[in-house]
Amino acid sequence: MNRGIALKQPQQIPHSLDELMQRAHQLTGYTLGELATNLGWPVPKDLRSAKGWTGQLIEACLGASAGSKPEQDFPELGVELKTIPITPEGKPLETTYVCIAPLTGLNGVTWETSNVRNKLQRVLWITVDGRREQPLAERLVGVPILWTPTPEQEATLKADWEEITEAIVLGRVEQITGRHGIALQLRPKAANSRVETQGVGPDGQPIRTLPRGYYLKTSFTQALLHEAIGVRVE
DNA sequence: GTTTGATCATTG
DNA sequence: CAATGATCAAAC
């Protein structure tokens, strides 16, 4: 796979959705090794100690504002960027992290004003071959998919979010497991299981508890990818 | 410690 | 063998 010079050096922030999508399409068919080399990045042996590497590489290729804090990757375009590891058949290999879950200060927050909805309003999915048996440098970038939840999908997300949020507000955060929710789930999001943050206990009292994050289940991601257009790595 | 980027790896 | 709970690294 060598189609000459195409994407060199970190990109500037795209000024329009068209420009962003054009760049995204230009990545299709390149290997992660080629993209990394073009940027002068080393390729790690595997992702065990570099779990966010692919996402950061794609960010740099598309000109996302790196390391930014709470909002979307392209605030001016209203677009959140997500790389999604899949098999050549289009099956997601991992759940998708959405954002941290607020455990306090939830009074007055609704689905409409939630971080989850804000992040998922418009997502640019970059499919990447994520098979572990495939050497990292040889993994192919696939087609980009710009997605906005259908009314049905949003209703599912909203229902999951409301169920989880209500449990958090009522002090049942430690009883919520990854099994809750159809599309959205709540799971640990921390350096390790000893990390603690502030939460609310059963009697409304402050407690120390494991930080959690919202994740999209693979079944939901797979459905949305296939609805958008039959996904393939190449 | 928190939030970004996620994948790892044990368990059912 | 998928899914849940655990974990890794960087920026701040």
From TrEMBL:
Q: Name one GO cellular component term.
A: cytoplasm
User: What is one Gene Ontology biological process annotated in the Swiss-Prot or TrEMBL record?
Assistant: mismatch repair
Which Pfam family name is an example for this entry? MutH
Family annotation (InterPro entries): DNA_mismatch_repair_MutH, DNA_rep_MutH/RE_typeII_Sau3AI, DNA_rep_MutH/T2_RE_sf, Restrct_endonuc-II-like
Cellular compartments annotated: Cytoplasm
Any one GO molecular-function label of the UniProt entry: DNA binding
Tagged with keyword Hydrolase: yes
Which residues does the UniProt record annotate as the domain DNA mismatch repair MutH/Type II restriction enzyme Sau3AI?
62-160
Which UniProt keyword terms apply here? Cytoplasm, DNA damage, DNA repair, Endonuclease, Hydrolase, Nuclease
Q: What protein am I looking at?
A: DNA mismatch repair protein MutH
The source organism is Aliidiomarina halalkaliphila
What gene, per UniProt, encodes this protein? mutH
